[in-house]
């Protein structure tokens, strides 16, 4: 079973930098495996709290190498909640890679632990019977300081349900819980890693920093 590691985060930065430079992405330095995965980009400005700039992944197992390459770009450039990340933002970026494991069907919508489990909810909307689904990675409810019900209600909204959230709505939920490993790297750490292992750190527009 694979765990998120430094080399996966490096590969995501490599993929984004190579995209901006119109270059081939350097080969990854981690082993291939099949897992669901997510790539999260955040921006740190003036030492403040990291702000989300993109987060996209898959809840279905994928080959890690192609998955991280695809979702590094998709989350950076095509998360519809945010404008595409620009090259000038790179020095402020932080990348978190998540590898998802241990999927389990929960007994009910409260059968999970904040800080331990990510959750996937699926339910049919009252009245319309429209199918809704959404997920939060394990770190999200803990970071927000939510109770289980607060997390569930937020996730119901994320799934697109705009009606009143009652206990009967919550009882419609089929919940799958999962766990994840993650690794977070700032762009400055990426540059240091690349310089130490390859002798140079790639800059933008085809330049290099020695």
From TrEMBL:
Family matches, as InterPro entries: AMMECR1 (IPR023473), AMMECR1_dom_sf (IPR036071), AMMECR1_domain (IPR002733), AMMECR1_N (IPR027485)
Signal peptide: none
Segments forming domain AMMECR1: 1-194
UniProt xrefs under NCBIfam families: TIGR00296 family protein
Protein name: AMMECR1 domain-containing protein
Provenance organism: Microthlaspi erraticum
């Amino acid at each position: 079973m694979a765990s998120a590691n430094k080399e996966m985060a490096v590969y995501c930065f490599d993929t984004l930098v190579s995209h901006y430079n119109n270059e081939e992405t350097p080969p990854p330095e981690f082993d291939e495996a099949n897992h669901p995965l997510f790539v999260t980009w955040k921006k740190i400005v003036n030492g403040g709290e990291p702000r989300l700039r993109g987060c996209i992944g898959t809840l279905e197992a994928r080959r890690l190498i192609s998955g991280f390459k695809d979702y590094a770009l998709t989350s950076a450039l095509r998360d519809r909640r945010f404008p595409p990340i620009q090259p000038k933002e790179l020095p402020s970026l932080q990348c978190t890679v998540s590898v998802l494991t241990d999927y389990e069907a929960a007994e009910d919508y409260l059968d999970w632990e904040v800080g331990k489990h990510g959750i996937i909810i699926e339910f049919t909307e009252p009245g319309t019977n429209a199918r809704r689904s959404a997920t939060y990675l394990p770190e999200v409810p803990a970071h927000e300081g939510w109770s289980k019900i607060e997390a569930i209600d937020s996730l119901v909204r994320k799934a697109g349900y705009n009606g009143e959230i009652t206990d009967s709505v919550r009882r419609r939920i089929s919940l799958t819980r999962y766990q994840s490993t993650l690794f977070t790297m700032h762009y400055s750490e990426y540059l240091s890693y690349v310089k130490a292992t390859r002798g140079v750190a790639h800059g933008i527009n085809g330049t290099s920093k020695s």
